[in-house]
Amino acid sequence: MEIRKIAGKNVYFFESVDSTMDTAKKLCDEIRDPVVVSRIQRHGRGRQGREWVSNRGGLWVSVVWDGVPKIILDYLFIIAAKAIVDTLEDIGINAKIKIPNDVFAANRKIAGVLIENTGLHVIIGIGININNTITEEMGDAISCREILGYRIEIEPVLTSLLINLHCLRQQCEKNNAEFFKDIKRFLI
């Protein structure tokens, strides 16, 4: 494990974990607002316990937020999905949000979001296909590398994602109505 400060957050990098969500859940009892990143998740999961294939080359991250105001708890998926859309736009990819938990680019799934509210903490799990190989188990998914035609450095994508998450959380907390006025154009 390696710990680095990125976008003001303590980011814990692992080579391989069962799930970044589970690792984040363990860490958040000892550390305030950790961010967990792993090169591989052996048992990544999506909604309703479905498997989330998390092979090398993707961005598999879980972000812990403490003190989430009740006013935005119901909107965490939209905040996370919009942060992914903004992050992908930063590298030249046009993406859209597909409720309940996906982000699509080129009409194929490029990212997913999983939210867990433990009562004390909210854990936002995000998986983005960046340079990883799309396998048969992933269905009709796509990666950033497939769209752009070249490899993308993962750490700048992570930095952008963390900044976008922070900014969108603040925006939503300050002016919920203004935040949602812009969201409709990003929905599929």
Short description:
With 188 residues, the chain is of the alpha+beta class.
Describe this structure in words.
By secondary structure, the protein is of the alpha+beta class. The protein has one domain (2-186): BirA Bifunctional Protein, domain 2 (2-Layer Sandwich), CATH 3.30.930.10. The chain is 32% helix and 29% strand. It is built from six helices and eight strands. An eight-stranded mixed β-sheet has the order 1-2-3-4-8-7-6-5. β5 (95-98) and β6 form a beta hairpin. α3 packs across α5 (154-174). The longest helix has 21 residues, at 154-174. It is globular, with a radius of gyration of 15 Å. The chain starts with a strand and ends in a 5-residue tail after the last helix.
What distinguishing features does this structure have?
BirA Bifunctional Protein, domain 2; eight-stranded mixed beta sheet
